[in-house]
């Protein structure tokens, strides 16, 4: 597969070849020896590319920066590198202005994200993660939209202690952020237990095999020893420059698309026989959400189904897709660097041919599959192996105790103390208490009730997601997690007034167009533009296979209900049997249909005002 030979891109020669240590930078203007980082600058590469090259396999100045006690921050460059270690430096934006006025440093702290392939944790791990949340973070655990946990508010002086506590329960944060293959998701539907075991195993194998090999994480956070001398550390797959941009992989098991496979760089769709046995995988490539407002050459894109592979080839295919992106991806412009743009540039056929070249065989034609939605199934289900599983609805994935409301933190702690199965996070920020033996079900149910944990919610709410946004996310332009619950209450009233309270409609909100809660594949998408202002997108498919379209620009939070209410009225009156809201708004002419990324920004035809 990767024979460590220089790999030329269709654009020209490769800039840096992993493994071989060989470089193909343009000759410098003098004979003086130059550093690789300098050569990267001369080649016009993005700043992060120089950083990666000069970082000594992701070490940079992190170890020294942690010793600087006069500041709660680390340097800007180390702030980029620390992402590869699963962290983002942030500051509390609610008090930023006040601190600036008092001439104080911003209130810096770190967001720490774990790597939990398939989102599976044991009760023992749960208890440890809970304790870390209350000891070092802000007292909450956040279940994310990509099946893992995040902590918020960890200050610099507690970083190493937090990492040691995470390591003590055999978890880590390596590659949870940064230009690498990130946490690998796997569908969780326990009702098809056999197929899900296979999906989970593939996710775990991909996560392990595409993990960076550098020892930097252990060395910096756990005071691990640095390997010195002849044995230079080596990233056989990534090389010194890792990937041009983040890379996200998921494994889905139809009919559920809860992992939102079309929003990801690489995906595997299980093809099942009549007995629910996995016979192979359809391979998807080139999905992604992020874009920049006002820059139409950036766009979200749904993944293409590229072909079919046999079970024994899946791991090779994953590595080949990632290494083609490693070699062909744009390293000059980070806004054009994700796999979705690589595929747009070179075409799916050329991309597939190169993947086939690297795996040494042809992919088969994609096999038929059907997805019925991208949400979760709440409440109890019994798996085909006789175990029981309870999916809880966790508002915005925030595991905390609310006075007079749900006590998820304490309640799930109590359950972890007696639970014999495991916990699973879903791609919709929810938690499954999984693998409960029949005899334990009543005991778990009693605890769920005692701590007022929600087993479901109204139809709109249970199909909702919000990213974190303010106050921690430095990129947020508007509120998301903090305002969505109130908006949902308003919209639920509006829907009920048209008799639509039981309609399953997906709604997602993010504080900026990076799209962490995948708003562009929700039937109603709200994307922050500025304080209390959102772009409103409509017309995505309920199963997550089609993007939405911009319906209204700069709607204020207070206006959203008024804008949507007439659409709900029309939907109640004119919809066809079984027609989803996202399909209806297109048929009724409120928005035009987006076929894929490049036409996301096109607004064709006179659009009907509601
Ligand atoms: C250029 C694109 C992006 C950037 C720069 C970015 C950056 C960030 C930052 C800074 C956070 C931390 C917010 C906080 O917790 O305070 C975050 C959260 C998160 N992002 Fe992104 N993000 C991008 C796109 C995406 C996309 C497209 C996805 C998913 C498909 C995603 C998945 C997540 C997840 C799972 C979280 C955790 C919080 C949550 O569940 O809401 N990100 N992102
Ligand atoms: S979508 Fe934007 S505001 Fe929301 S978490 Fe992601 S980067 Fe932050």
Automatic annotation (TrEMBL):
Free-text remark on how the cofactor is bound: Binds 1 [4Fe-4S] cluster per subunit.
Catalytic activity: hydrogen sulfide + 3 NADP(+) + 3 H2O = sulfite + 3 NADPH + 4 H(+)
Matching SUPFAM superfamilies: Nitrite and sulphite reductase 4Fe-4S domain-like (SSF56014), Nitrite/Sulfite reductase N-terminal domain-like (SSF55124)
The keyword NADP is annotated on this UniProt entry: yes
Region described as Disordered: 1-29
Ranges of residues in domain Nitrite/Sulfite reductase ferredoxin-like: 110-168, 385-448
The enzyme's E.C. designation: 1.8.1.2
Record key words, sorted: 4Fe-4S, Amino-acid biosynthesis, Cysteine biosynthesis, Heme, Iron, Iron-sulfur, Metal-binding, NADP, Oxidoreductase
PROSITE patterns, per database record: NIR_SIR
Segments forming domain Nitrite/sulphite reductase 4Fe-4S: 207-362
Cofactor(s) it depends on: [4Fe-4S] cluster; siroheme
Subunit structure: Alpha(8)-beta(8). The alpha component is a flavoprotein, the beta component is a hemoprotein.
Function field: Component of the sulfite reductase complex that catalyzes the 6-electron reduction of sulfite to sulfide. This is one of several activities required for the biosynthesis of L-cysteine from sulfate.
The family this protein is said to belong to: Belongs to the nitrite and sulfite reductase 4Fe-4S domain family.
Name of this protein: Sulfite reductase [NADPH] hemoprotein beta-component
Organism: Methylorubrum suomiense
Highest classification ranks of the organism: Bacteria, Pseudomonadati, Pseudomonadota, Alphaproteobacteria, Hyphomicrobiales
């Amino acid at each position: 597969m990767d024979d460590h030979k220089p790999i030329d891109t269709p654009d020209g020669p490769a800039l840096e070849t992993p493994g071989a240590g060989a470089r193909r930078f343009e000759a410098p203007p003098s004979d003086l020896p130059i550093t690789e980082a300098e050569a990267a600058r001369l080649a016009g590469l993005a700043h992060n590319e120089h950083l990666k090259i000069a970082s000594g396999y992701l070490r940079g100045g992190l170890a020294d920066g942690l010793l600087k006690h006069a500041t709660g921050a680390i340097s800007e460059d180390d702030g980029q590198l620390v992402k590869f270690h699963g962290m983002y430096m942030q500051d509390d934006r609610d008090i930023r202005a006040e601190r600036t006025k008092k001439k104080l440093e911003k209130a810096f702290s770190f967001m720490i994200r774990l790597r939990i392939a398939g989102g599976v944790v044991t009760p023992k791990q749960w208890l440890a993660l809970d304790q870390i949340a209350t000891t070092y973070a802000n007292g909450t655990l956040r279940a994310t939209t990509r099946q893992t946990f995040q902590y918020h508010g960890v200050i610099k002086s507690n970083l190493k202690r937090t990492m040691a506590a995470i390591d003590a329960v055999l978890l880590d944060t390596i590659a949870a952020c940064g230009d690498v293959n990130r946490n690998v998701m796997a569908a969780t539907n326990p009702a098809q237990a056999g197929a899900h075991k296979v999906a989970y195993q593939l996710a775990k194998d991909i996560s392990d095999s595409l993990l960076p090999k550098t020892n930097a994480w252990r060395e910096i956070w756990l005071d691990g020893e640095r390997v010195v001398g002849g044995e230079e550390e080596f990233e056989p797959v990534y090389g010194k420059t890792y990937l041009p941009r983040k890379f996200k992989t998921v494994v889905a098991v139809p009919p559920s698309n809860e992992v939102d496979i079309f929003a990801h760089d690489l995906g595997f769709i299980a093809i099942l026989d009549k007995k629910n046995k996995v016979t192979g995988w359809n391979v998807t490539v080139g999905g992604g959400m992020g874009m920049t407002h006002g820059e139409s050459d950036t766009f979200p894109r749904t993944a293409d189904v590229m072909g079919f592979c046999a079970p024994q080839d899946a791991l090779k295919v994953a590595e080949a897709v990632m290494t083609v992106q490693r070699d062909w991806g744009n390293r000059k412009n980070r806004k054009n660097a994700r796999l979705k743009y690589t595929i747009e540039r070179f075409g799916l056929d050329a991309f597939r041919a190169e993947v086939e070249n690297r795996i040494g065989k042809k992919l088969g034609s994609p096999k038929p599959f059907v997805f019925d939605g991208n949400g979760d199934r709440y409440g109890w289900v019994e798996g085909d192996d006789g175990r029981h599983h309870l999916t809880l609805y966790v508002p915005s994935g925030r595991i905390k105790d609310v006075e007079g409301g749900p006590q998820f933190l304490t309640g799930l702690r109590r359950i972890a103390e007696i639970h014999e199965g495991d916990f699973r996070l879903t791609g919709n920020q929810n938690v499954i208490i999984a693998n409960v033996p029949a005899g334990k079900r009543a005991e778990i149910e009693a605890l769920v009730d005692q701590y007022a944990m929600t087993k479901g919610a109204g139809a709109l709410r249970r199909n909702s997601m919000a990213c974190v946004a303010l106050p921690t996310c430095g990129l947020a332009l508007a509120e998301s997690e903090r305002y969505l619950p109130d908006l949902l209450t308003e919209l639920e009233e509006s829907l009920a007034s048209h008799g639509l309270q039981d309609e399953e409609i997906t709604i997602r909100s993010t504080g900026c167009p990076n799209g962490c809660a995948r708003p562009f594949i929700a039937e109603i998408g709200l994307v922050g533009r500025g304080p209390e202002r959102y772009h409103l997108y409509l017309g995505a498919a309920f199963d997550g296979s089609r993007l939405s379209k911009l319906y209204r620009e700069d709607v204020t939070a207070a206006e959203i209900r008024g804008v949507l209410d007439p659409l709900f009225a029309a939907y109640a009156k004119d919809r066809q049997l079984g027609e989803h809201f996202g399909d209806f708004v297109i048929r009724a002419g409120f928005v035009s249909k987006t076929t894929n990324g490049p036409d996301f920004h096109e607004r064709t035809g006179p659009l009907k005002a509601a």
